Amino acid sequence: MFLKLNFLSTKTGLDNTGIIHLIKKANVGLYDQKHIQDFYNEYGENETERWDKSIIEKVKYLVHNHYLYKYILPGDQVLELGAGTGMFTKELVGLAGSLMVTDLSPVQLDLNKKRAEEDNYKGKIEDFRIIDICDLSTFEDDQFDKVVCYGGPLSYVFERNADALSEIYRVLKPGGIALVSVMNLWGSFNRSMHSIMSEISKEDNEKVLTTGNLHPTAFTNSNHHCHIYKSEEFRTILESANFEILELSASNCLSVRRAAELEDMQHDKAKWEYFIDLEIRACKSPGLVESGTHIIAIIERTI
What we know:
seven-stranded mixed beta sheet
């Protein structure tokens, strides 16, 4: 069964509860914790390199960081979920009062520790723990001021996304804020359009575009099992989890297909800084939220 995820109530006649039910029905049984753990154990240091490998990824990293620097305050108790090899961990240690670092993959977590040791900030981290974001029972209710879940961990849990968001909500203090990002469908298509059009059949493309799933049930050659979101779907899921959306942004926009121009521009500090400012502003435009490979959401627990 393939479900068209346009989430326009005028077409479906459903409220948010009905929409979430249909999402779960379309994705039922797709979350495979062991597959994701094995994938990232093997992926290893590639997780670091994916942020460093191109100027386009560098811009995306800076847009994510913009929100860390805006919302993480001195004294905050912060939980980082899906921390990977520590690209954002190294930023958070300088911002938070205390930091708990977690990931599903023991290999990723070991690489994170290694980076912390090499860069002399391991002592600033409260602990490193292997955690599934769908089960945060090791943590108390109302424990953290902020939760950071960057890079797409919520994209891997498929039908368990409501469970993961419920757990994030539970461990946040009332008024606490989570900074999360998920993979975006149209932005990812835009970024990889040439290879998608030349290497993937129309039939497989339509299955992915319809379901949002990179999974053998939709695309038989996919080994990278994840759900890539449209903005309305993401917004619906966040609001159904009782979060207030403070900000919604693309991870990249003006920079998506301009690597050569960006390489030249970064050598002029003034122009580079102005461009990053423009990129951040453009990414927040409602018409451009789906222009990047990820969608960033800043959400608040209001109760």
